[in-house]
């Protein structure tokens, strides 16, 4: 779905919007009444001023329920269906929250809450459809850690209370490279080696810098070979050709995204990393990411669950 299709949908009758959302399993089609032995509820038209235009009503017990019952849209009842759909579209295109708010004339705080909820969906989807383990025979993976603290400009302003480190494992099987990123409290072998063992398939070749925690990686059962580049001497080893440029590139893209957001709270950082992982592994190209993301919704919201 592109922006023109979305705008045309918005300009058409509301029935077309509801029908499209039902076709994508984003709204119930139809809603069932649990009190009347799962009797099919009827969709009735509301007065012209209501944000949805329709509601569900059971012909048996006369119970009424919102058109959004059991759906993602139920969490934001005062925002129109089309506006929420456009927020989802701009989110998948990685537009800034400020731009989304200005384009749709919504408050920044509301857009932030919607986007945070969409990030949570990325996190849950990664749990339900794990991206790990990866690698394996003939695969080269690269490991590194990076500090994700804001920097005080000209040594002025507030400084972080504690350092925030992110550990990344990148596989070069794909172009651009894809990876797994997680916040770690420590950068020692006791912390990093179990993560590496969890993420890699047997037979993986691992490239790292000379950080001490990686010293005994070759002893891990799923690592067949470990090669090291000493960054104090060179970024690409002139003899072996070993480097960690792909993971450094990932750090650069992740930190650029944080810079666009003007920073992020530590408690929200893992959700940001999960979103980045979902985009790498599940998003697809720019023409498919909207549809791929919409396909995640039915896994989280069973819209056809009988209404209480």
TrEMBL record:
<dbReference type="InterPro" id="IPR024445">
    <property type="entry name" value="Tnp_ISXO2-like"/>
</dbReference>
<dbReference type="Pfam" id="PF12762">
    <property type="entry name" value="DDE_Tnp_IS1595"/>
</dbReference>
<feature type="domain" description="ISXO2-like transposase">
    <location>
        <begin position="133"/>
        <end position="281"/>
    </location>
</feature>
<dbReference type="InterPro" id="IPR053164">
    <property type="entry name" value="IS1016-like_transposase"/>
</dbReference>
<protein>
    <recommendedName>
        <fullName>ISXO2-like transposase domain-containing protein</fullName>
    </recommendedName>
</protein>
